[in-house]
């Protein structure tokens, strides 16, 4: 009986792969660009998330060249609108920062600090909106690159097989990075890659400097791997899955599923050892969201719906249980940290000062990248004198302060576009429903975590997240394209 179930599932998987390859094209040039996209993501992650100026500029330049090369390839009709929105958003952001930093722009009033400097120096100055124009111009590549990465992913991932292949690369890469982080933490706790580890020595940070950044990346990886495992288990009885694990003959799906399940466990273990309270909590919330959305409603399912519609949810809940179990076993230090500090965190003391700076600079902002220059004037002495606040530990509040009205405008466009595409994917992609569910869960994770952190300001994480969401949206838009084609064929006279 088990062998029959295994054979039936293998036939279903082969049919899914044939269906997923439909629409695949582009030849060797597109394949080379997809390999380049994967390489750029990896390069952006490994050197501390590309936080250094040299690594940051190199990886951003690589994504810009890749986007330009991808623009020369043919595109699917379903991706034209989101790609156009991504590129227009990047162009708007670049233009806005240029207006902030360019001297003599009379259309925008200069920051008041320039008038004070004129009085002190007793000489005329060409004032700008930005308090440090050179700094604002320098951060343009890192701010525009995620939009280019998202557009490039939509350009190049033209079939389900290609999109799932990119997600598999991202998930496996994240699992390997997590394993590397655990090994280095266990045997060389004072080392970060090839340099000395100066911060968070008691926590796993993988290839990043900050444990919260590592937690965000590991959480995204867990969601991607959970989606892949849910797809492979879709429509499969649990005894069939066990039979595939124990089958003696060769089976790529069997080994791949076992490998991905092991990577999820490794990532969960590493996530707990980051001791990031917000990272662990936001990952748990994201997994719960994934479990709720991955369910295929019985009235829309076909076949043995009573068994099939719970499979993706069971996978997600299983991952959540694994995360909780690992947390209870190895998260003693994290629980102790949460118990001892609770909500008594210095970052919450800084938020009123940052809000005051954002209010004073509204609606044009203080200039992109100038938080560390402006904030000291608003720092409350009651928050303590220790530490240098070069970031706000609140992605959206810092963006509101530095970019002004452009920040909510860009967020509105980005969230509206992603929500619309992923919601459509939930509706039309029955076989790959776990992919849009994972995309929404990733969006929940980074949104919630960055309300108290700055993970999306780390170029490597921002680029990896953009490509992940691009791959998820490619699967969703592929479903819309198939639906339109099927409707056209149905409307033709026989």
TrEMBL record:
**UniProt-annotated location(s):** Membrane
Question: What is the organism lineage in this UniProt record?
Answer: Bacteria, Pseudomonadati, Pseudomonadota, Alphaproteobacteria, Hyphomicrobiales
* Pfam families the UniProt entry points to: Wzy_C (PF04932)
User: PANTHER family from the xrefs?
Assistant: TEICHURONIC ACID BIOSYNTHESIS PROTEIN TUAE
Q: Which InterPro entries match?
A: O-antigen_ligase-rel_domated, WaaL-like
Output this protein's name: O-antigen ligase family protein
Using the UniProt annotation, give all residue ranges assigned to the region (Disordered).
1-24
Transmembrane segments in this chain: where? 27-48, 54-73, 85-102, 134-157, 169-188, 214-232, 253-273, 279-297, 309-330, 400-422, 434-452, 458-477
Q: Name one GO molecular function term.
A: ligase activity
Sequence ranges of Basic and acidic residues compositional bias: 1-21
UniProt KW keywords: Ligase, Membrane, Transmembrane, Transmembrane helix
Q: What are the O-antigen ligase-related domain coordinates in residue numbering?
A: 264-405
Membrane topology, as annotated, equals: Multi-pass membrane protein
- GO CC terms in record: membrane
């Amino acid at each position: 009986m088990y062998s029959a179930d295994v054979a039936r599932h293998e036939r279903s998987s082969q049919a899914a792969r044939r269906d997923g390859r439909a629409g695949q094209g582009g030849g060797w040039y597109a394949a080379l660009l997809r390999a380049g996209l994967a390489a750029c993501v990896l390069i952006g992650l490994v050197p501390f998330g590309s936080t250094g100026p040299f690594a940051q500029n190199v990886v951003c330049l690589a994504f810009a060249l890749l986007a330009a090369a991808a623009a020369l390839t043919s595109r699917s009709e379903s991706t034209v609108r989101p790609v156009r929105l991504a590129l227009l958003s990047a162009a708007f952001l670049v233009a806005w920062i240029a207006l902030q930093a360019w001297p003599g722009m009379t259309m925008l009033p200069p920051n008041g600090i320039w008038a004070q400097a004129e009085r002190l120096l007793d000489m005329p100055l060409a004032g700008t909106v930005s308090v440090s124009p050179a700094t604002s111009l320098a951060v343009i590549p890192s701010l525009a690159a995620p939009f280019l990465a998202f557009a490039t992913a939509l350009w190049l991932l033209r079939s389900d097989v290609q999109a799932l292949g990119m997600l598999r690369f991202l998930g496996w890469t994240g699992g390997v990075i997590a394993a590397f982080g655990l090994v280095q933490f266990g045997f060389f706790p004072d080392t970060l890659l090839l340099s000395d580890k100066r911060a968070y020595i008691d926590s796993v940070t993988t290839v990043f400097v900050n444990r919260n950044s590592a937690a965000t990346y590991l959480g995204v990886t867990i969601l991607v791997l959970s989606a892949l495992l849910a797809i492979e288990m879709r429509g499969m009885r649990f005894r069939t899955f066990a039979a595939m694990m124990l089958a003696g003959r060769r089976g790529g799906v069997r080994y791949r599923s076992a490998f991905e399940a092991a990577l999820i466990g490794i990532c969960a273990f590493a996530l707990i050892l980051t001791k990031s309270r917000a990272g662990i909590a936001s990952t748990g919330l994201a997994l719960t969201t994934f479990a709720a959305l991955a369910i295929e409603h019985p009235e829309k399912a076909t076949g043995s719906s009573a068994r099939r519609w719970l499979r993706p949810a069971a996978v997600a809940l299983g991952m959540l249980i694994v995360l909780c179990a690992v947390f209870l076993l190895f998260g003693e230090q994290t629980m102790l940290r949460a118990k001892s500090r609770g909500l008594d965190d210095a970052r919450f003391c800084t938020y009123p000062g940052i809000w005051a700076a954002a209010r004073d600079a509204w609606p044009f902002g203080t200039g992109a990248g100038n938080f560390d220059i402006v904030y000291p004037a608003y720092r409350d002495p009651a928050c303590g004198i220790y530490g240098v606040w070069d970031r706000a530990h609140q992605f959206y509040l810092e963006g509101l302060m530095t970019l002004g009205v452009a920040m909510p405008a860009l967020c509105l466009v980005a969230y509206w576009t992603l929500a619309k595409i992923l919601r459509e994917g939930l509706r039309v992609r029955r076989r790959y429903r776990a992919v849009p569910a994972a995309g929404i869960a990733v969006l929940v994770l980074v949104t919630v975590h960055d309300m108290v952190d700055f993970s999306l300001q780390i170029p490597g994480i921002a680029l990896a997240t953009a490509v992940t969401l691009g791959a998820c949206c490619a699967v969703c838009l592929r479903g819309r394209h198939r639906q339109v084609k099927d409707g056209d064929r149905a409307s033709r006279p026989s």
